[in-house]
Amino acid sequence: MSLLFMPASSGAVDVSIGKPPGKMYDVGGYDLQLYCTGSGGPKVIVDTGLGSSSMEWLAIQDRVRKHARICSYDRAGYGWSDEGPGPRTAALMAKELHKLLQAAQEAPPYILVGHSFGGYIAQHFAESYANEVVGMVLVDSSHPEQTRRLQQLANLEAGDSLQQAHASSVNPVMLSQPRGNPAGNAREIGEFLNSRRKAIFAQMDELSNFAESGAQVAELRPFPEMPLIVLSRGQPVWGETPAGRAAEAQWQMLQKELAQLTNHSEQRIARHSGHHVHIDQPELVIEAITDIVRASNLQPTRNTAGID
Fold it and tell me: What GO CC annotations are associated with the protein (predicted)?
């Protein structure tokens, strides 16, 4: 599966190993990279999946910036961002994101876009700073109950490895190996950055605290009322085994539950996509974001004071 980057014909951003697309901001003794383009509000904030970086979202960002200001960033350890303290949980990373937006003076209101594990951070951020968030797009997002429910399935399917069947959903960048210092190719730069030691350790830390992150999201329920689109995959990723089929059915049930978080929610199915909908069918992600931008602009004005 190839990664999607901004094509040269659309004014590709100039990046290198030593030159991130955005700027670096101190969030408490370590720096995170934030890249913002476009104008207008509410501001769209992208949080990537586990093992991913902002490089995967450049093409989508280039399209959305025509409709609103949009920011992507690298969590601690990924991309150009420094390593951060642990444990790497949703609560800590939502707080880091809030500090990052404050440091960059990117004032609310926000629309959050969370893919996979990034959906945990988006949900926790919205629950923690409800007066600053006016909409959300969850892209095949994690659900607070998924660890427990999928583990129950794995226990029931003795001898049928759910973990092995799930390998196809791992971000392909994390399977790459460093190949020296790439020169100029955005895809190679992204692969290099996310195959370095700090990114691997960031991924391991997020994985080891995955269940705790889900518990932190659930603890802050109920979810605040806002326009929400849940964009779910249409293609299975867990394989054609009994455990794989059961896990896929449970995943789709979890997606339906996410789409019931608010009274202004909608679920959309990306029929031709696996877990990485933003790579397989980016146009659906762009459409969902722009639809939420329009919907949020129709909502009553809310108190969104959050930047000093």
Answer: membrane
